[in-house]
Amino acid sequence: MITNLAQGVQAFTSNVFLVTGDTTALVDPGANFDVVPRIEEHVDELDRVYLTHTHSDHVDNVDAVREAFDVETWGFDADRPEVDNAIADGEAVPIGDDDYEALHTPGHKNDHLCFYSRAAGVLFAGDLVFANGGFGRTDLEEGDRPTLIDSLDRLREAVEEDFAEMHVGHGPSVTRQPFDDVETAGRAARMG
Question: Where do the coiled-coil regions begin and end (predicted)?
Answer without folding.
Answer: none
